[in-house]
């Protein structure tokens, strides 16, 4: 799916971030004098998929506990966004995969209706109809004085541009097989701390530069497969996607979904490591056996030579 995200941006070309100083999640204070985003090319956000996504970001009340009212225009914006998402090969791949696993209807219209309910259907987080999966994951909410959700880089960028979001520093994640890339300002999965609307989120992970269709498809697939934690290889990153279910009035909705770098391994990777260790042990045993055989051969040859020298000595005598 990562390879199918043809609209993913190129770091250093389409955009650039400034990670600056790292910090611990519990550390207070601002460790970043500069904004997180140095620039994003304006024309990127004007593409049909991206503009359809951005149109959704102002459709929600930030405070959980304040009921949402969905207008006809907002319904049309939801439909337009889904239409653009389904033009993307990421969602086409996710749909085929889910159909194969028996987790989604083969009919595209029926699948779109399923996604409309999963992502945009309103449910109760504090009061009736005050939240949805899309709002929580992509827009962000404030609940009991804390920021919840907000795992989308476009929303972060837009909010930073308006002065509503203050980047406070990045948090180094544990990562299997190595650390940050040679140029960490080209990272496309980051864990950061930020202030939003006067409240601080100590730790939040997000992709950077990916298209909205990629995230929407990935989170949908992980959620519908029914696993709260999914280990996924995404490009050069090993990540764990969290996808929690929110059940309301007998229906299932997306409660949250987000990525995080991890040092865990998939079953296939674990099997590869075990096989590699076993091959190493077998090779060591073989080498040890070869050494023993060689030692025995040397000892046998030495005995033969000693006997031969003894015979020659006796003859001479």
Structural class category: alpha+beta
Low-confidence stretches: 176-182, 269-274
> What fraction, in percent, of the residue positions are helical?
25-40%
Largest sheet: 3 strands, antiparallel
What is the spatial order of strands in the main beta sheet? 5-6-7
Task: State the shape.
Answer: elongated
What's the N-to-C terminus distance?
87 Å
Mean pLDDT reading: 87
Number of helices: 8
User: Helix and strand succession?
Assistant: EEHHHHHEEHEEEHEEEH
Number of domains: 2
How much of the polypeptide forms β-strand, as a percent range? 15-25%
The count of β-strands is 10
Radius of gyration: 29 Å
Describe the model.
The chain is of the alpha+beta class. It folds into two domains: 15-264, no CATH class; 265-317. It is 39% helix and 21% strand. The chain has eight helices and ten strands. The chain has a three-stranded antiparallel β-sheet, covered by helices on one side. The chain has a three-stranded antiparallel β-sheet with strand order 8-9-10. A hairpin with a 2-residue loop joins strand 6 and strand 7 (199-207). Helix 1 runs antiparallel to helix 2 (72-85). The model is unreliable at 176-182 and 269-274 (pLDDT under 50).
Name the descriptors.
single chain, about 40% helix, alpha+beta, 3-stranded antiparallel beta sheet, elongated, 10 strands, about 325 residues, 2 domains, 8 helices
């Amino acid at each position: 799916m990562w390879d199918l995200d043809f609209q993913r941006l190129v770091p250093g070309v389409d955009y650039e971030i400034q990670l600056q100083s790292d910090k611990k999640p519990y550390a207070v204070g601002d460790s970043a004098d500069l904004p997180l985003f140095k620039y994003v090319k304006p024309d990127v956000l004007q593409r049909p998929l991206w503009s359809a996504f951005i149109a959704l970001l102002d459709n929600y009340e930030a405070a959980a506990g304040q009921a949402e009212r969905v207008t006809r225009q907002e319904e049309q914006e939801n439909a337009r966004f889904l239409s653009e998402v389904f033009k993307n090969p990421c969602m086409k791949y996710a749909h085929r995969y889910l159909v194969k696993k028996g987790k989604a209807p083969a009919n595209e219209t029926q699948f779109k209706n399923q996604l409309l309910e999963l992502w945009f259907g309103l449910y109760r987080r504090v009061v009736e109809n005050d939240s949805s999966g899309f709002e929580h994951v992509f827009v962000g909410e404030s609940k009991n004085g804390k920021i919840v959700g907000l795992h989308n880089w476009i929303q972060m960028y837009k909010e930073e541009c308006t002065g509503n979001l203050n980047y406070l520093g990045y948090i180094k994640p544990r990562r299997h097989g190595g650390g940050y890339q040679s140029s960490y300002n080209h990272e496309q999965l980051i864990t950061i701390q930020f202030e939003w609307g006067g409240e601080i989120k100590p730790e939040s992970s997000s992709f950077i530069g990916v298209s909205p269709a990629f995230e929407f498809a990935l989170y949908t697939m992980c959620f519908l497969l029914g696993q709260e934690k999914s280990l996924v290889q995404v490009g050069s990153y090993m990540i764990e996607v969290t996808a929690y279910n929110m059940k309301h009035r007998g229906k299932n909705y997306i409660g949250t979904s987000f990525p995080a770098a991890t040092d865990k391994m998939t079953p296939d990777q674990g099997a590869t490591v075990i096989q590699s260790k076993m091959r190493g042990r077998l090779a060591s045993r073989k080498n040890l056996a070869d050494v023993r055989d060689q030692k025995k051969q040397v000892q046998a040859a030495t005995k033969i030579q000693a006997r031969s020298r003894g015979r020659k000595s006796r003859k001479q005598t």
